[in-house]
Amino acid sequence: MIPLLHDFTGATVLVFGGGSVGARKARRFAREADVLVVSPTFADVEFGGAERIRAAPDADAVGEWIDDTDPALVVAATDDGDLNAAIEDAAREAGALINRTDEHGERDPESVVVPATVRDGPVTVAISTGGTSPALSRYLRQRIEDDIDGAGEMARLTGELRAEMQADEVDPGRRRDAIRAVVRSGRVWKHLDSGRTKPRQVAEDVIADVTGDLQ
């Protein structure tokens, strides 16, 4: 499986199953997508603002739900393996991506595994074990959270500096070396981590050292 980042803005994610697993999937996508959760009952947990529809479609009816909602992704999170299989078949027939929560290990083509993610601003790190060990994914996510603290601010800072150097028509090779030097500079990271107000000034000093130009 190849990891990709997918923009779900304006798309629909259709979740079958209102238990804790379905709720977790709903929360995962509710920030970007329009999430619909279909289930005869719902666990007393947070669904992230997803729309909950009380219904109990059988294997023959799930295709109608998929046709009516035109989802980009279908999540089969019921406790009925046969129903999940029917949901998967209907999703594939409709050309939608499919995530089955009751399958682990090797997946069929066009299957989706939802990774554990760590976010800091525009920086996203995804961890996946291919669905074989969600517990390990969560453990690694917790370890990585501290490691990328400040990465979002570094991404914004270097993005601004890169754009300015492009506008000034700085040689691409020198520009690349300068931005790499900023990213690897302990001084810049220290100012980002400490909440000081001058990380940009320090970054410009690093760039000046690399390019030999006054910034």
Q: Just give the CATH class of the largest domain.
A: Alpha Beta
- Biggest sheet character: 5 strands, parallel
> Which blocks of ≥5 consecutive residues have pLDDT under 50?
none
Order of helices and strands: EHEEHEHEEEHHHHH
| CATH homologous superfamily descriptor of the largest domain | NAD(P)-binding Rossmann-like Domain
Number of strands: 7
* First-residue to last-residue Cα separation: 44 Å
| Strand content range | 15-25%
Q: State mean pLDDT (0 to 100 scale).
A: 89
Tell me the radius of gyration: 22 Å
- What's the overall geometry? elongated
Number of discrete helical segments: 8
Tell me what the structure shows.
With 215 residues, the protein is α/β, with parallel strands linked by helices. It has two domains: 1-114, Rossmann fold; 151-211, no CATH class. 46% of the residues lie in helices and 15% in strands. The strands form two sheets. It has a five-stranded parallel beta sheet with strand order 3-2-1-4-5, sandwiched between helices. Helix 6 (172-183) crosses helix 8. The longest helix has 17 residues, at 151-167. The chain is elongated, with a radius of gyration of 22 Å.
